[in-house]
Write the structure tokens for this entry.
Amino acid sequence: MDLLIRGGRVIDPASGRDEVGDVFVSEGKISEKKIKAEKTIDAKGLVVAPGLIDLAARLREPGYEYKATLESEMDAAVAGGVTSLACPPDTDPPLDEPGLVDMLRRRAKALSRARVYPVGALTVKLAGERLTEMAELAEAGCVAFSQANAPLADTQVLWRALQYAATFGFAVWLRAEDRWLGRDGVAHDGEVATRLGLPGIPSFAETIALATLLQLVRATGTRLHLCRLSTAVGVDMVRAAKKEGLPVSCDVGIHHVHLSEMDLGYFDAHCRLEPPLRSQRDRDALAAGLADGTIDCAVSDHTPVDEDQKQLPFAEAEPGATGLELLLPLALKWGEERKLPLAAALARVTSEPARILGVPSGRIQPGAPADLVVFDPQLLFRVVPEALRSQGKNSPYLGYELAGRVRATLVAGNVVFEQP
Amino acid sequence: MQRNPQLNASGELQHLLSIEGLPREILLQILDTAESFAGVTEREVKKVPLLRGKSVFNLFFEASTRTRTTFEIAAKRLSADVINLNIAVSSQSKGESLLDTVANLSAMQADLFVVRHASSGAPYLIARHVKPHEHVINAGDGRHAHPTQGLLDLYTIRHYKQDFSRLTVAIVGDLLHSRVARSLIHGLTTLGVPEVRAIGPQTLLPAGVESLGVRVFHDMRSGLRDCDVVVMLRLQSERMNGALLPSAQEFFKHYGLTAEKLALARPDAIVMHPGPMNRGVEIDSSVADGPHSVILPQVTFGIAVRMAVMSIVAGN
């Protein structure tokens, strides 16, 4: 269907374009030519931007359908303006076999909402012992390989896994956390954990693992994407690694640029996240690192958790927060706090993750896929459980008002979500 | 930041969850009320009718004999009906959730829940979900807080030392895992004790413990110098040999309280311990049973303090 989005503020972070104009869509792609549109979306007073690309969103299938289903979470994605997402391999069973990956992709495709890019398991069952058949998994559609939140303790296996991935040119996405130092911890090992009597995860659980990973990248040349950076020292280390020319990129969870250990308040289990919310100094360094490009992109780290698993004492509650529908408003909030141009803020959730994923979307240019979001950057909405389409209602932002209401989402030129 | 969940809209004590965040006036009100009850516990008829007709549920998700018993005695002396539930071996093992258990007991017309739980923060979760007329008293949650123990420690200190504003108090041993230490530190700093010392090896002190307002000593002898009050903490046996400490013997040698080390404190120093004691691990018998020890009076005061807390929250 040919379509016209008329009179919006068109922002293309990749080129820096930011002007009022029309966007034409033809045959699923952005078109240069003025076409005779069968449908027109009036975007006056609204922003037209590339659809968001989220490098970490758990869809909970297969295995955790009681927490969320592909259908509910794909609805949440497009309602949040997310048109592409990468899902980590921590399903049950984990994404360690081509058949599972194939099934997930086909189920996702049949729903024809957001594009789904599975991230395969780096080791069988994520157990950190045997390598998966990475080449087979890549053929089935895996875009990278990861351990999700299961740190690989055995450095021999880690080294070999990185070597093997490098052989085929596969990217490896890992979160830096030393398994032993992080063991039993549920909160940042700082003042708040000391006060609340919660077992801590020290900052050096991240930085020691990060030093190991960077050293192995030097040795193997593997393309490494570092997931969910959480410490100020970690940001400095990544900055130095990039300056050195190492093939590393990096993301941060969108909650971690806004919240800190202080937000745990009186044991708020919605603030139990992985990695833990750290000190205000860490939070500020993450927000600054995302602005100066040390951190390439922000992700939702979407983790739907059922209410029963959050209505528990803090340490027993399941970690994670819902995020697909909050990624855009929280990215806008971050951009505004840093006084960034809208294009620069949006780059962190569109063109930059597209570059890491190696996909042609994430831009508004002729010939690019017509994956678009139309949103009202001013209109406030209240985050309440009933307003969230995700089955996961678990958010530290429940009750807050955020700006950035999605009005329409397009994937491959099809309107997959629309609301007044 | 949410409103302090322990206080009601008029700033009175609705629940007792932690000493942290309680104003000095409330702490003093509890200590003064406890003092008025001390007489009751010495009478021949040890009862007052303040909680007559009220039901107190002792919810112990973690085993404890001593604390549960003192709460039970305190409630009975206030004429309440007491129901003891040892949940560690009942519904939790059948898979019932914490909040379901509480909802069920609430349906049986409870007025006051006394909660002991192995997880830090569990009483906060319960307090968020009980009915407005129900009250929660934390009887120890994980490593977080044990406010009635902290209050009875404060009561004991006031009983022997009167004025908080000139004291030096040392807390010795495993502060990392100790809810008793956290509660006592908050109480002492709120009541204006000028110097609170934390004495222990690095492995048993939590990260940034100075932020609680204590001065850290790794050498016990220098830490004890000129102290008015010495509080010894219990060392759990599972922590004696492993990555935290090599052995109980080595711990005793460096951090056990002996008469010789106690001599460095002030001549009129008092020695406290929340119990149960490991003689020969954190404290030598000659000190535990010696003239400076107020360990048994602590237990007696504990009943009056728990009576005070129960009568105050139930009255608000």
